[in-house]
Structure formats: structure tokens, C-alpha cells
Amino acid sequence: xxxxxxxxDLPPIPGxxxxxxxxxxxxxxxxxHVLRYWEQEFPQLSPVKRRGNRRYYQRxxxxxxxxxxxxLYKEGFTINGAKNKLDMEANQPAKVQKxxxxxxKTIKLLIGELEEISSLLDA
Length: 123
Description:
Elements: E1 19-20, H1 21-28, H2 32-41, E2 48-50, E3 54-57, H3 59-74, H4 79-122
Antiparallel strand pairs: 1-3, 2-3
């Protein structure tokens, strides 16, 4: 998901469990109002909300924000394009699993046919 080259110019993410919106803003070099907007646009981005509706982001949220920033600002995606890209990335493991199941069925069929040919040759 996150290409290490995406965040080479950004500060490293500290080893904390939760980050405030101000900390994330500095870590990702994105203004807080942009982060709040992205929460509305990207369902994958959902920080924990506690007392007084204060947002607390986790490390995976910060990485996702950096990825979104890269898609929008460096790769030139629109908001909808970035949403689609993130959805495709999220669905890729399912696609890979389906491809593996398909290959497995094909291999089993081939093995069965080869065994049949082998028994015909033995006879």
C-alpha cells in the first residue's frame, strides 16, 4: 500500500499508539481541516474518537493519510480516482486468492488427465 518513496521527505512516524490531529498534521504535512475532509471522503480513514469528539489516529491511519496524500498530490489522482485506487488495493488479496483457487482447480484437472493417460499407456 504505502511505497517507502512516498514519505521520504516526511518526518518518521514515532512509535506511539495514538496521535492527535495536530501531530498527524505535522507528520503528514497536511492541514487539520484537510484531514477532517478526507475522513468524510475516504471510508478507510476512521480515527478513534474519544472525549469531546477528539480524534486519535493510529499508525495505520497515518500511513494511509500519507498514501492518500501521495495519490492526490504527487500522482495527480482526483478524490474519486484515489478512492477507486484504494478500493482496488483493498480487493487485490481477494483477487489473488481467487486466481490461486482457479490455478489449483486447473492443476487438479491436469493431474487427473495425466494419470488417465499414464494408465492407458501402462495397459
